[in-house]
Structures are given as structure tokens and as C-alpha cells.
Amino acid sequence: MTTFVLLHGAYHGAWCWYRVRAELEARGHTVETFDLPAHGVDTTPPGDISLADYVEAACEAVDAAAGDPVLVGHSMSGVVAAGAAERRPNALAATIYLTAYLPTDGDSMLDLRAPDTALDGNFVVDEERGLGSVPEEALDDVFYGECDPAERALAHSLVRPEPMAPISTGVSLTADGFGRVPRAYVECTADATIPLAHQRAMREATPAERVETVDADHSPFLAAPTATAAALERAADV
């Protein structure tokens, strides 16, 4: 059985994995989730957060996990997972990028944003506070297009603004670190934020040894948790 460490994406927290966690545990796997700094119920002031803080939190979770875990990054946390792989290449069995930004050396999340997506005109930056957010009326179009009303209501109540500094910072990657960790990618066909063509373009630049496909939006953990858990299970076998 596999130990999965699940990294949530921007705006979200460990709460978003609750259905996938149950599915994976029912299959006999061990699952670790946690809030990145200034996300979920974490009380770290968002103005104090850096990409290095995200990566350090991921590394701490990897260090605490049993055996050699599989690190899963969703969306923004593709960059975080890559940074953790750079720092912990000997501790990870694999990394999985779940409809995630998949970087090359020096890329930030903002560098990797696709043009002409549902985020266009729906990403609001508070320069004074250093936070980015998606207006509530746009959340479903951006993130939850195929989620049922109960999951949408849950997400609306729990998302938080995203600190701008971490998503504006490039990640340093090398062949001896990041490059040594096996990579898999789980693509989502109905993602309006990272469209399928863009997911595939990032894999052209940074290939993955295994690719799985889920018919879901940008939030497959809520829209299709059973299929997502099955895809993660298959993707872990890289």
C-alpha cells in the first residue's frame, strides 16, 4: 500500500481532500493532508508567507510520513511539489501533478498561467495586502463547474485569498534533485482554469512517466472523488 501526501492548491486547504482521502483509505492506503501556511485554518499572517514556506511545509510532511511517500500537488501546488522533490529526492517514491502547474527550472505559478481561461477578468489583486482572490460569483465558473451544489456551497464557505508572493516566485530545479523523482500527471478534461491543452503543453516541457485522465473540472477531488482516487492509485505506480 502507498502513503500519499496531498498538497492542496491556491485558496483551498486540507478540507478539499476529504472525499478523496476517504476513497484512498478505503483502498488501504495511508493519506496525510495539512494546511499550507495561511490556508485553511492555519493562522500564519498571509503577508509573511513565501514559496519557501510552502516548500518547507511540504518537506516536513514528507519527513513525517511513513516509508517513501508519494507527493501529490494540485494546481498551484504543482510548483510546491516540484520544490519539495528538489529538496527530498531520496525520500519520495514519486510525485503526482493533479491538473497542476508543472514547472521547469525558474518558473513561478504566475509564469505558467494559461491564456484565455476562466480566470481572465476573475483574478483580483489587493496590492496593499498582497493577496489575490476570485470573486465569489465567479468561483463556480473558475473552479467548480462540474461539482454538485452541496460541494460548491462547502467550497464557497472555506476558500481564502491567496498570498501573492509565493505564486510570483520561481522555483529552482535541478536534474540531480527534482529530476531524479519519478513524475506522473493526472489531467482533467473539463478544467477551465488549466485547460487540457495547457496541461499537455506543460508536459511537453517537463515530461511525466505516466499520465492518467479524469473527466472533471479543476476540482476533481470534489467533482469526481472516486475517479480521482483511482487515478492517483494508478499514477503512483510509476
Can you put this structure into words, describing what you see?
It is a single chain. This protein is an alpha/beta fold and 238 residues long. The chain has one domain: Alpha/Beta hydrolase fold, catalytic domain (Rossmann fold, 3-Layer(aba) Sandwich), CATH 3.40.50.1820. The protein is 34% helix and 16% strand. The protein is built from ten helices and nine strands. A six-stranded parallel beta sheet has the order 2-1-3-4-8-9, with helices on both faces. Strands 5-6-7 form a three-stranded antiparallel beta sheet. The protein is globular. The chain starts with a strand and ends with a helix.
Secondary structure elements and pairings:
Elements: E1 3-7, H1 18-26, E2 30-33, H2 51-64, E3 70-74, H3 77-87, E4 94-98, H4 109-112, E5 124-126, E6 131-133, H5 139-142, H6 149-158, E7 162-163, H7 164-167, E8 183-188, H8 196-205, E9 210-214, H9 220-223, H10 225-235
Parallel strand pairs: 1-2, 1-3, 3-4, 4-8, 8-9
Antiparallel strand pairs: 5-6, 6-7
Helix pairs in contact: 1-10, 2-3
Give a quick precis of the structure:
It contains ten helices and nine strands.
Main beta-sheet annotation: 6 strands, parallel
Kindly report the oligomeric state of this protein.
single chain
- Report the principal-axis shape: globular
| Architecture (CATH level 2) name | 3-Layer(aba) Sandwich
Percent of residues in helices: 25-40%
Computed Rg: 16 Å
Low-confidence stretches: none
Order of helices and strands: EHEHEHEHEEHHEHEHEHH
CATH class: Alpha Beta
Organism: Halarchaeum rubridurum
GO molecular function: methyl indole-3-acetate esterase activity; methyl jasmonate esterase activity; methyl salicylate esterase activity
Domain AB hydrolase-1: 4-231
Protein name: Pimeloyl-ACP methyl ester carboxylesterase
